[in-house]
Amino acid sequence: MSDSVPDIVIGRLPLYLRALARLEQDGVPITSSHELGAQLGISSAQIRKDLSHFGEFGKQGTGYQVPYLREQLARILCVDRDWTVAVIGAGHLGRALAGYKGFGPRGFHVDVIFDNDPDIIGTQIGGLVVKPGESMVEELRARRIEIAMIAVPAAAAQSVTDRVVAGGVRAILNYAPIRLVVPDYVHVQDIDPVIHLQHMTYYLRT
Amino acid sequence: MSDSVPDIVIGRLPLYLRALARLEQDGVPITSSHELGAQLGISSAQIRKDLSHFGEFGKQGTGYQVPYLREQLARILCVDRDWTVAVIGAGHLGRALAGYKGFGPRGFHVDVIFDNDPDIIGTQIGGLVVKPGESMVEELRARRIEIAMIAVPAAAAQSVTDRVVAGGVRAILNYAPIRLVVPDYVHVQDIDPVIHLQHMTYYLRT
Q1: What local confidence, expressed as pLDDT, does residue A3 receive?
Q2: What is the ipTM of this complex?
Q3: Is A7-76 in CATH node 1.20.1250.20?
């Protein structure tokens, strides 16, 4: 595994992993780069090239063993272990994230949720007691949280980000519609629904 | 503009559009495929190739006029007009979507929100009165809604999808962690935060 693998390739691996997990669920034992490609809208050549960065996962003409390739991708992406996550912001979005059923089965566990509103601090959300924002740095450090989801208004997002970084977080899923400034060693992914909407409007022209 | 442009290329255009809008906001008049590529983690050759599907947007060596290229991409993606959107589900996620400040400035307006809970129907969310799910097909048709955001539990997502399709919707932003079955002419994009989390965990291995 080399650190020189382009980030755009890394970004496609979770898509392959999801497709493989679905095939495995459906009881499909073997797949091909063509089948995966057709499902994902990615060329089979691209898939083979992406995977070749990490080794040899199938023989020419016989396809990929679904469970094996899924396990290997999970290992490469470091999701063969569980991760604990902090949710920052206990408004509607934060509550939705804390209650989202899609995280647990794929190895992400919301361990703590923060808010600044005195009316919300101390209340329970999905079995978690909402902690005050001012305790964020110590709480994150004590719990060794490495991933945070930022679900606060845009105006608060950068100051909250500075605190989660001070708390030792190295990966941020950002729901606020702004560009966060972080140190080089911190990874940020923006959840931007408009990107997905604009992808579809292309096809809606009449 | 040809319909044979690969979907994966279309999927990158909103990223280019967002980067250009940010450059324009920052007052940058001219950019290059290298600058865009560095910002997006996409090779400059890929960007030039993607854009070449749609015409000639800059001269070799002089770069792209930021406002001009932004306008052209907005036109290509059909976001040089406004779109009305329905939110299905008025739980925490639906409320967060109805109140999200990032849609309006980029041309997407939530026009109607539905729920099945008698306690929620008729209440106001962000200036909208929650409509009953049973009126969905007629309401969507009457309002000529073409885009729906599905924010209901996984178990309800497919039946809700069948109804938005019956209501004339041609594009669905799906927040439920399941694969929706739709007719060929309906476009679906899944918002899957785990895909983004797994992209980052790759870099967290120690």
Answers
A1: 59
A2: 0.94
A3: no
